[in-house]
Amino acid sequence: MSQVTAAAPQVADSHNDLLMACLHRRERGVADPFGDDWLPGLREGGVIFQVLPIFTEEQFVGEGALRRTLELIGMAREIANLHTADVGIVEEAGDVDEIIDGGRIALLVALEGAEPIGSSPSMFDTMWRLGVRMASLTWNRRTMMADGVGESDTEGGLTSLGIESIHDMERLGMILDVSHLSAAGLAHVDQVATRPYVATHSSCRLLCDHPRNLTDEQIAMTSRSGGFVGINAFGPFIDAVEPTIERYVDHVEHAVGLAGPASVCIGADFTEDLVRFVDPILGKALVRPEDLVPILGLSRPSHYPNLTAAMVERLGLEQAERVASRNMLDFFRRALPSGSQCM
Prior knowledge:
This protein is α/β, with parallel strands linked by helices. The protein has helices spanning 18-27, 33-44, 64-82, 93-101, 123-129, 160-172, 183-192, 216-224, 235-238, 245-259, 272-278, 304-315, 317-335; strands at 11-13, 47-55, 87-89, 105-112, 132-136, 175-177, 197-198, 229-231, 264-266. The chain has one domain (11-337): Metal-dependent hydrolases (TIM Barrel, Alpha-Beta Barrel), CATH 3.20.20. The strands form 2 sheets. Strands 1, 2, 3, 4, 5, 6 and 7 form a 7-stranded parallel β-sheet that branches.
């Protein structure tokens, strides 16, 4: 297995569903699934910052969404309490450097889809108090705020509730994630948003024509807002025939050409270990289960040195370091509130 060398760029990753995997393992009686299954790989891969999305599985859509979300937030807090020497949860801008400079991995909690919010934007205030610092209005499915890419035939933009929710998120300082949002919804966000928004785990539509990927204009638009695009390492989003690390770097290079050198990051969305632990119901997933093909040598956090080495060779050390971690860290230092602004 790959080892981190002194020259290997450190990694910030804007999407890893490990909370869901940890909760499932915990429900099966495993005392410390994060310590057993994830922490060693994050360390081996050189990860210093990890976004932890909270996804509402199909069986919890509806009234179960909020309860499940609270359980997952509890899982994040349990991880932080069990592993105080290794991780810390980011809630304000100053936490980023304090945690990383202390040799720990910075964790940021996010919502992937607004199912737990339901029809009550005031719930964003509650989520904020619980430590959630980023959220998307949709997964692939429809919510009361917007349509995901699985509902794109409607050509619907944001609902009035979705517009209100963006205003509430901006008031709090919560970052808006547009990955999974329909094309009409993303165009509407660009008209409504007054603060930077991000696409945490989306690749380039021109290089791989999948509805979950972003068009050139969407990539440029996200960058113009002041946000970033995190390139997804899910095989079917990278190449329909042969997803490879080199092909992943093609997506990075293409996005950098559109968004600029400071607006492209890593949003790997690793699924191989996730489905091994979770076996999720994939309704509206826009991909068949048999097509869950990982990139050889880039399917879990411990593989990151393979990617960073390829990026250094192709892009040079400075740009590779930007994409691997610096761009994302700089964004959260700017976008998160200071201590005096936190509620």
